[in-house]
Write a structure and sequence with these properties.
By secondary structure, the chain is an alpha+beta fold. Helix content is 18%, strand content 33%.
């Protein structure tokens, strides 16, 4: 009998998906949850199971999920792509991105400065 590993569990959203991997622990060192654009251009991987948390915010789009990823950078897998981050904290708004937003530019998600941001 040949052992067969089940593929990752995938939750699809509009333009991206969440991929949960509890099979390749030997390779990754832990279970992992990846946030992936549909074009597979980047893999934002957190160690641990973050599927429930992502499902709660998926309606906010890729930007909301990237914000979650950045907020949990201490759990980022060494195999993950990174995101440029600049955020501020206020009591009223909590953490938010200052003077810009995450945008899909030149085939990758990156932080793009927004000089019109009035929250600076």
């Amino acid at each position: 009998m040949i052992p067969v590993k089940a593929p990752n569990t995938v939750t699809q959203a509009d333009g991206f998906f969440i991929s949960y991997n509890n099979v390749d622990i030997d390779a990754y060192g832990d279970v992992t949850t990846a946030l992936v654009p549909d074009d597979h251009s980047q893999f934002f991987i957190l160690n641990g199971d973050h599927v429930a948390q992502y499902k709660e915010i998926m309606d906010g789009g890729m930007e909301a999920c990237l914000a979650y990823f950045v907020a949990h950078a201490d759990q980022r897998s060494k195999f993950s792509d990174t995101v440029d981050k600049r955020f501020r904290f206020t009591e009223e708004r909590g953490a938010y991105y200052a003077n810009g937003s995450f945008q899909y530019v030149d085939g990758v998600y990156r932080f793009v400065d927004d000089p019109e941001d009035s929250h600076g």
